[in-house]
Structures are given as structure tokens and as C-alpha cells.
Amino acid sequence: MSALLAGCPARERLSPEADRGRKVYAANCIACHNVDPTKPGPVGPALKGSSRALIEARVMLAAYPPGYTPKRDTKLMVPLPQLANKIDDLAAYLQ
């Protein structure tokens, strides 16, 4: 681990699930969403605090759960079914 990351208190506080979710987020989400999930990205909204139901619906179907009002009116999200077994980790990171 680099010296820069070794002293990062925020990273040290992540649970194992959230740390895995951080890695999934970095590898799959930051092209459209901000590196910092509390901020909006160039295409996608901020994701911090997203419910597991929302994450699952967006990742698996590029849809919204029933009754959810989107933050942005875009239709650019594509399904990412290869992440099906990573949804709990993403949810842990984004909480």
C-alpha cells in the first residue's frame, strides 16, 4: 500500500464490505459518477446514501425501484449484470 493511502483515516474506517464496494465503484462507476460519491459526476448524480433497492435496480436493470423519483432525467445508465454479486458491497460503500 502506498504511503499516501496508508495514512488515510477514511479508508481505515471502511468495513471489509465497504472497502470492496469502494473498489467496485472506482472500477465501474466513476466514468459517469464523481470519484467522490457525495458529488455529482459529469453524467450521473451523487450516489452517497443511495438505498440498496435503488442500487440493485440501477445496476441490474438500469431502471428505478417503484415510486422512486430520479435526481436527473437521463436515460444513459446501462445495466451492469456482471456486478450482481457486488451490490451488497456497493451499498455498504455508498451508505
Describe what you observe in this structure.
With 95 residues, this protein is mainly α. The chain has a single domain (3-94), classed as Cytochrome Bc1 Complex, Chain D, domain 2 (Orthogonal Bundle). The protein has helices at 3-6, 9-12, 16-28, 52-61, 87-94. α4 (52-61) packs across α5 (87-94). The two termini are 25 Å apart. Residues 1-10 have low confidence and may be disordered.
Considering DSSP H and I runs of 4 or more, what fraction of the residues is helical?
40-55%
- The general outline is globular
CATH architecture assignment: Orthogonal Bundle
How many separate helices? 5
How many beta-strand runs?
0
Unreliably modeled segments: 1-10
Text of the CATH class: Mainly Alpha
Number of discrete domains: 1
Question: If you compute it from the alpha carbons, what radius of gyration comes out, rounded to the nearest whole angstrom?
Answer: 14 Å
pLDDT averaged over residues: 89
Write the CATH fold name: Cytochrome Bc1 Complex, Chain D, domain 2
Major beta-sheet overview: none
Question: How are the elements arranged and paired?
Answer:
Layout: H1 3-6, H2 9-12, H3 16-28, H4 52-61, H5 87-94
Helix pairs in contact: 3-5, 4-5
